[in-house]
Design brief:
Strand content: 15-25%
CATH superfamily: Spore Coat Polysaccharide Biosynthesis Protein SpsA, Chain A
CATH topology: Spore Coat Polysaccharide Biosynthesis Protein SpsA, Chain A
Structural class: alpha/beta
Helix content: 25-40%
Mean pLDDT: 95
Oligomer: single chain
Shape: globular
Low-confidence stretches: none
Radius of gyration: 15 Å
Order of helices and strands: EEHEHEHEHEHEEEHH
Length: 179
């Protein structure tokens, strides 16, 4: 998923092309997927990220740019896509093939949300503005999920590689330090 404008990032670069450690975040995520057992990759783009689409060599699925959920729904309706689907946000510069494999191993059937404790994000010093309660614990989405035909399972991890989403320049500084 690499169609966001990244307004909170406060930079002229499109969010997926924002460089962490000198490498565009979307390239880091694509590299992690290449290191994993994932066999097909589509970049989900929107009109809000035309430079990202031009940058990519990966097959793209264009969406209207109406927000993450609407764009995900549009991508899932593409004829080339069949469930289950691993979805990954382009703002995870610490992602690598090993953690992608752990997510795939945690998925049994249906849908799987990968979550981190909100306290872990705070401990790392990264933004945590999308937290919610799940089974009595404050958690945050990571931007990594498996979308299946049914179900709503969750995998809770404290792994830094999925806990650091770059939404702000402060998040980017933390990611740079952790690389």
């Amino acid at each position: 998923m690499c169609g966001g404008r990244g307004t909170r990032l406060d930079t002229d670069a499109e969010k997926p092309l924002f460089r962490v450690g000198g490498v565009p975040m979307v390239d880091r995520v694509l590299g992690a997927l290449e290191e994993s057992a994932v066999d097909r990759v589509f970049a989900v783009t929107s009109p809000g990220a035309p430079e990202t689409r031009a940058h990519l060599d990966t097959p793209c699925i264009g969406t209207p740019g109406d927000g993450y959920v609407a764009d995900l729904d549009a991508a899932l309706s593409d004829d080339r896509v069949s469930l289950p689907v691993l979805t990954v946000a382009a703002d995870l510069p610490l992602l690598d093939g090993e953690i992608v494999e752990r997510v795939l191993d945690a998925h049994v059937e249906g849908s799987l949300s990968v979550l981190v404790p909100a306290a872990r994000k705070r401990e790392l010093g990264v933004s945590d503005d999308a937290t919610f309660e799940r089974e009595g614990r404050e958690v945050a989405p990571t931007g990594v999920n498996v979308v299946g035909a049914s179900g709503d399972d969750a995998w809770l991890t404290e792994d830094t590689r999925v806990a650091v989403n770059v939404n702000t320049l402060a998040d980017a500084r933390v990611a740079e330090e952790l690389l």
